[in-house]
Specification:
Two copies of one chain form a homodimer. Chain A is of the alpha+beta class and 141 residues long. Chain A is built from three helices and nine strands; from the N terminus they run H-E-H-E-E-H-E-E-E-E-E-E. Chain A has a single domain, classed as Phosphoribosyl-AMP cyclohydrolase (Ubiquitin-like (UB roll)), CATH 3.10.20.810. A four-stranded mixed β-sheet of chain A has the order 3-2-7-6. Chain A has a two-stranded antiparallel ribbon with strand order 4-5. In chain A, a hairpin with a 4-residue loop joins strand 4 and strand 5.
Chain lengths: 141, 141
C-alpha cells in the first residue's frame, strides 16, 4: 500500500507540494516499526552516521529541530548529544522514492562518532591491499 | 560477538591496518543476511540512494568494482544500471564503527533514481509549511 503511494508521487513535477502528514502516514517502517536515517553534515557533506527512528522519534526530531533517534540496543529514544554534548541540529530532511529511508542534513557539534572521530565511517577498505585502514584517532570522552 | 570485534578496533590509531577478510567476517548482517549500503556521489557528495547487500553482493561489488546490491523485492542480485545503463563505479568503501552499515562513494552514470531524478531523495520536507516538495522532474526511461 505504502509503496503504491510513493509510486503515484513519481510523476509529479518539480516543486509540486503535498501535505507532510499524508507522506508521513505512508512512510514504510519495518517490522520493528523503524526506518533507517542517514545523517549528513550540511557543510562538509560527509556522511556522519546511519541510525534508526520510529514514528515518534521522527515527530520529536521535526518538532524539536534536533536529531532524536530510536536506540535499538537500549530500546529508548536517543537524543543525540544529550550526554556527550555532540548534538545535531536538523537543517533539512528528505524521504527517498520508496518512502523507506530518511536523509537528514545536520549541523554537527563536535564528533558524530562515539569514538570521538568526526564520522562513524572510519574503517576504510583498501581493496587492492585487502586491508582496512583506521581513519583518525579515538578521543577521550 | 561481532559488536565486540568492532569495539576492540576503536582504540586503534590513525592509519593502523588490519586484514579485510577479518573485518568482513565480523560485519553485522541482519536476520535476513543483509546490511544497509549508503551510496554517495564521489564528486558532488550527494547521497544518491540507500539499498542492501548480502555477503555475496559485497564480494561481487569489491571484485567487479561496480555496485551490485541485493534486491529485497525481487530476491536476486541487482547490478545497478544493468538494464538502464545508469551504472555506479565503486570509488571507495567504508564500514561504520558498529560494522552494521556500509558507505560507498561512486561515479554515477546518469540518474541514480529509477524515476530519472539524480538522487532517490527527491521528497524534501518543508517543516514550517508542513509540506513535502518534489525536487526535479521524472524522466522518461
Amino acid at each position: 500500500m505504502s509503496k503504491m503511494f510513493f509510486q503515484r508521487l513519481e510523476s509529479n513535477a518539480h516543486n509540486h507540494r503535498l501535505p507532510l502528514a499524508e507522506v508521513m502516514e505512508n512512510l514504510c517502517f519495518n517490522e520493528n516499526g523503524l526506518i533507517p536515517v542517514i545523517t549528513q553534515d550540511c557543510s562538509t557533506k560527509a556522511v556522519l552516521m546511519q541510525a534508526w527512528m520510529n514514528r515518534e522519534a521522527l515527530d520529536k526530531t521535526l518538532y524539536t529541530g534536533h536529531m532524536i533517534y530510536w536506540s535499538r540496543s537500549r530500546h529508548c529514544f536517543w537524543e543525540k548529544g544529550a550526554t556527550s554534548g555532540h548534538t545535531q541540529k536538523l537543517i533539512s530532511i528528505s524521504f527517498d522514492c520508496d518512502g523507506d529511508v530518511i536523509l537528514c542534513q545536520v549541523e554537527q557539534k563536535g564528533a558524530a562518532c562515539h569514538t570521538g572521530r568526526p564520522s562513524c565511517f572510519y574503517l576504510e577498505v583498501e581493496p587492492e591491499q585487502q586491508q582496512v585502514r583506521i581513519i583518525g584517532d579515538a578521543q577521550q570522552p
